[in-house]
Design a protein that fits this description.
The protein has helices at about 1-25, 55-65, 75-85, 100-105, 160-165, 195-200, 210-220, 250-265, 265-275, and strands at about 30-35, 45, 50, 70-75, 90, 105-110, 115-120, 135, 140-145, 150-155, 175, 180-185, 185-190, 205-210, 225, 235-240, 240-245. The chain has 2 domains: about 30-110 and about 240-275, 3-Layer(aba) Sandwich (D-Maltodextrin-Binding Protein, domain 2), CATH 3.40.190; about 115-235, D-Maltodextrin-Binding Protein, domain 2 (3-Layer(aba) Sandwich). The protein contains 9 helices and 17 strands. A hairpin with a 5-residue loop joins strand 11 (about 175) and strand 12 (about 180-185).
């Protein structure tokens, strides 16, 4: 009898431990977990220990619409995408543009802002326009580089990385073999845009390709660098929120919230707070 009681007690303890473990591992359904990379001002950056910016405020407004508490997790940009695709985070907001490759592993919301890639160079750089980077063919497309030894700095896995890493004919910087594998990799990838800018200032790269608004913030914070003037913009794309592929329930809720926030002027108000209409960056 004593043995039976002991076995029963052991089983109860085991079941309790399993239940405790499961409850600790269970996601809080009232919390919306957003992954971001808080090194992309003015969309997301740190003010002390707090993550602030356009995406942070829009996410907070969405969470409020959904009656949920917002939790923001700061990770590397690449980990935002993989974490969402693996279901680790509910959604990702980090100035994310929609690409066919990304759509294979995740779904995207309606757009809420526009991103434009620009080029940052050091003051006195021989690069003054796109004509100083490429030789163009009769159709106006880049055919070759004027300086085959050029090095480009980008933030890893961002749109700037995707475009810069493509073939020269696609407005990238790399020569390709016949099988389209990279023959010459001229792109140097950094975890943050700030690291890429630091590499530019130290002469490790010749220019940095990055989104326009973060570029403005980096230029404002660093003497001796500037954004190329004139028609030097390319890869104009829309920002969207990513969720795990097939999570239509959450995606529908996010899109409904975005539509309402656009209609009542909330999103315009948040964007104008950080990006005044005169073109400056706060």
């Amino acid at each position: 009898m004593k043995k039976l009681i002991a076995v029963a007690m052991a089983l109860c303890m085991l079941v309790s431990a399993v239940c405790l473990f499961a409850s600790c591992d269970k996601k809080d359904e009232n919390t919306l977990v957003m992954a971001t990379n808080a090194a992309f001002p003015p969309y997301e950056f740190k003010d002390g220990d707090k993550i602030v910016g356009i995406d942070a405020e829009i996410a907070a407004a969405i969470a409020e619409k959904l009656g949920m508490k917002l939790e923001i997790v700061d990770v590397d940009f690449g980990a935002v995408l993989t974490g969402v695709a693996e279901g680790k985070y509910d959604m990702g907001m980090a100035g994310i543009t929609v690409t066919d490759k990304r759509k294979e592993s995740m779904d995207f919301s309606n757009t809420y802002a526009t991103g434009i890639q620009v080029i940052i160079v050091n003051d006195g750089s021989p690069i003054a326009t796109l004509d100083d980077l490429w030789n163009f063919d009769e159709n106006g497309d880049p055919a070759s580089l004027k300086n085959p030894d050029i090095k480009i700095g980008v933030q890893q896995d961002t749109t700037g990385d995707i475009y810069s890493s493509s073939a020269i004919s696609g407005w990238g910087f790399n020569d390709l073999n016949e099988d389209e594998s990279i023959k010459t990799d001229r792109v140097i990838r950094y975890k943050t845009g700030a690291e890429a800018v630091a590499a530019l200032k130290s002469g490790k790269v010749d220019c940095v390709i990055i989104d326009n608004e973060p570029a403005k913030s980096f230029v404002a914070a660093n003497e001796g660098i500037h954004i190329l003037a004139g028609d030097n913009e390319y890869a104009v794309e829309d920002y969207a929120i990513c969720v795990d592929k097939g999570n239509t329930e959450l995606l529908d809720k996010i899109n409904k919230a975005l539509d309402e926030l656009k209609a009542d002027g909330t999103i315009d108000g948040i964007i104008n707070k950080y990006i005044p209409k005169d073109g400056g960056a706060q």
